[in-house]
C-alpha cells in the first residue's frame, strides 16, 4: 500500500516536472493521472491503496456520527426530569487480534459519550465496558461488533 502511494506521488511530481508548472492544480492533475495509471496496473497488487483510504474515511465518519448520536442520547437522558437510565458493566469478547486494532476499538468506545472501557484482559480479547444506558446487553454487543469492529477490520485487513 505504501509503495502504491509513493508511486502515485512520484507520478504527480513527474507530471509537474514535465510541465514545468509547480502549482497545486498541476499536482492534483498529476495525482489523478497517477490514480488512473495505478488502476490500470491493479492486477499487480492484491488491493489498491484507495480502498484502504476509503475505509479510513468511512471509519472517521462512523466515529463522528456515533459521537453526535451518543452525545444527543446522553444529553437527553441527563436533562430528563426523572432520569430512566440503566447502567451496566458488560463483558465483550472481540474478534480483533492485533494490539493496534484493540487499541483503536477501546479509543473509539471511550470517545463516544455514555461508554468507557474499564478493563482489558491479558490476551486483549475481552473488554469490560461500562455503559450508561443499556436496554439489551446482547444488542449492545452486536452494535459494537457491527459498527466499530467491522469498520476497524475493513481498515486493517
From TrEMBL:
<feature type="transmembrane region" description="Helical">
    <location>
        <begin position="23"/>
        <end position="41"/>
    </location>
</feature>
<protein>
    <submittedName>
        <fullName>Na(+)/H(+) antiporter subunit E</fullName>
    </submittedName>
</protein>
<feature type="transmembrane region" description="Helical">
    <location>
        <begin position="53"/>
        <end position="75"/>
    </location>
</feature>
<keyword id="KW-1003">Cell membrane</keyword>
<comment type="similarity">
    <text>Belongs to the CPA3 antiporters (TC 2.A.63) subunit E family.</text>
</comment>
<keyword id="KW-0813">Transport</keyword>
<keyword id="KW-1133">Transmembrane helix</keyword>
<keyword id="KW-0050">Antiport</keyword>
<keyword id="KW-0812">Transmembrane</keyword>
<dbReference type="Pfam" id="PF01899">
    <property type="entry name" value="MNHE"/>
</dbReference>
<dbReference type="InterPro" id="IPR002758">
    <property type="entry name" value="Cation_antiport_E"/>
</dbReference>
<keyword id="KW-0472">Membrane</keyword>
